[in-house]
Protein: Uracil phosphoribosyltransferase
Amino acid sequence: MAKALIMDHPLIQHKISLLRDKNTGSKEFRELVSEVGMLMCYEATRDLPLKEVEIETPIATAKTKVISGRKLAFVPILRAGLGMVEGVLSLVPAAKIGHIGLYRDETTHMPVEYYCKLPADIEERDVIVLDPMLATGGSAIDAIKMIKKRNVKSIKFMCIIAAPEGLEALQKAHPDVPVYCASLDQRLDDQKYIVPGLGDAGDRIFGTK
Structure:
């Protein structure tokens, strides 16, 4: 089974505390989600392969390293995943962006697909799926299933807050997909919201509630 990495960096934990605060407004919330996404991306791309090149500095010739031909794609799960895109692109501006639209049926709590647009060369890329919240795991499981249908060989999932139930479900459904998470919370409540969580990430990012 693929690893689940819980990131305990002090900067990430500090920003999550601000995200959880119900008094944090939409503007600050959006900025924090983007910043946490950027910090998490730093860790999620740690295993990118390098190759040695020779360059001329102002002083001398030097052998140094650059990323070795691996191409990235980020795929946010709409709509809350959009909040993480700016942060990750600030680190990897050449990456391509796909979009998968899923929403949760309020009665069944199951994901319903309404949109999927991925880069034409997605099968040649390392894909990182983005969603701030991993609650039941349904949306993440379905999104990764859709990506795997395009013959993608390398997929990672990155979220800010996860519930144990969602993490277990995702790892069971896709044991080959590493999970990067900034906080593993206590549980899901009766409405399938993460406790203590931070509320509805999409509503807080876009100010729709």
